[in-house]
Amino acid sequence: MSELGFELVCLDCETAFSGLEPRYRCDCGGTLDVKHDLKAVAEAVDRDVFDRRRGNGGPLDRSGVWRYRELILPVEARHVVSRGEGNTQLYDSPAVAKYAGLDRLLLKHEGENPTGSFKDRGMTVGTAAARMLGMDRVACASTGNTSASMASYASIAGMRAFVFIPEGNIALGKLSQALAYGARTLQLAGDFDAAMRLVEQVCATESIYLLNSVNPFRIEGQKAIGFELLQDLGWRVPDWIVLPGGNLGNNSAISKGLVELHEIGWIDRLPRIAVIQAGGANPLYTAFTTGRPIEPVRAETIATAIRIGNPVSWKKSLRGIEASNGVVEEVSDQEILDAKAHVDAAGIGAEPASCATVAGLRKLVANGTIDPGSTVCGILTGHLLKDPDVVVGYHSGSLSGIDSRFANAPLRVPDDLDAILAELRRI
Prior knowledge:
With 427 residues, the protein is an alpha/beta fold. It has a domain at 90-116 and 219-396: Rossmann fold, CATH 3.40.50. It is 41% helix and 14% strand. It has helices at 38-44, 47-54, 59-62, 94-100, 119-132, 145-157, 172-180, 192-206, 216-222, 224-232, 249-263, 283-290, 314-323, 333-345, 352-366, 388-396, 417-426; strands spanning 6-10, 16-17, 32-36, 90-92, 106-109, 137-141, 160-166, 184-188, 209-210, 240-244, 272-278, 327-331, 376-380. The strands form three sheets. Strands 4-5-13-10-11-12 form a six-stranded mixed beta sheet, with helices on both faces. A four-stranded parallel beta sheet has the order 8-7-6-9, with helices on both faces. Strands 2-1-3 form a three-stranded antiparallel beta sheet. Helix 6 (145-157) links the parallel strand 6 (137-141) and strand 7 (160-166). The longest helix has 15 residues, at 192-206. The protein is globular and about 75 Å long. The chain starts with 5 loop residues before the first strand and ends with a helix. The mean pLDDT is 94.
């Protein structure tokens, strides 16, 4: 084990690296895990320490990532850039539970992070790793949320940020954030997967630090979603955790963190994990149901945050699903947007990719995979305003190929008090 208290280990060949150099893959091409000295962690802290920190006022303890720092990244505090990420609400929504066919449903809303998505949890750790390694330039390929988060954290850290986006395939609510936070943005012909290939090459050539989820430290930050969820529940383990799957970093991270908690004895069992993919971007679902390796697809879905056809974290994802006896399901864009209408109408709201969670839950309950009486926690990954054009398009009935079954269309009324009153009384 490295003197840092962790090392990077290849998922394929198990070669270990110290973590003291910018590295995202093994020499064999395999992706890397951060492996902690869990015995030392268990000797140094326990769950009570995390609970006490939650009520403290210190800058690290206020963060819903860094309060778990011994299990995230034991780095010097001077390297940390934090916006108080995490600390997101766990909503008990009877209306959405009823739509999904459940007795009760709890929704952890990661769209309440500072830049509006779960990416902030991973980005605070990725940025800290960059500073630890002495890097002053960072880059990512993105369909939107990653670029928004990276641009914000890089700006606070005084780093130059470069964003590679697929031309014409990014929600303006997300692109606007990257531009506003000062990242230099390059629009590329091609999809996200093409942008991902190019940004890896550019970072290797120009010594720029890559902050996509292939970066193992990003995954460590995203583990905190699971840690905080369990803390919200008084460390009681739910039966199911359900979340959307795009590049698959989130379920890889949550699964990894839960396995670590189980290994050190802080939880007595693992929840089952269900990953929900859009039908037009479903390589994990196909691999899971056929037993074959991932085969990249040309991704197409209205849920831009999960419009990824060649997910970088697929091996880690399948490892976590297997460890938890989990499942993978796919849903159509119609199912996603119908679920979104119910999440939004419940007063919670989320971007389309988030609502794949509820659409998938509805499907898994209907086919008998999830019992209606199970304790289920769904993860919503992004804020409602990340993709406002889809919201307006659904409710105005203008989205091509989508039947706006639960539309709340604006009413046109004349500039006349009596007519307005008559309309109000009618509805």
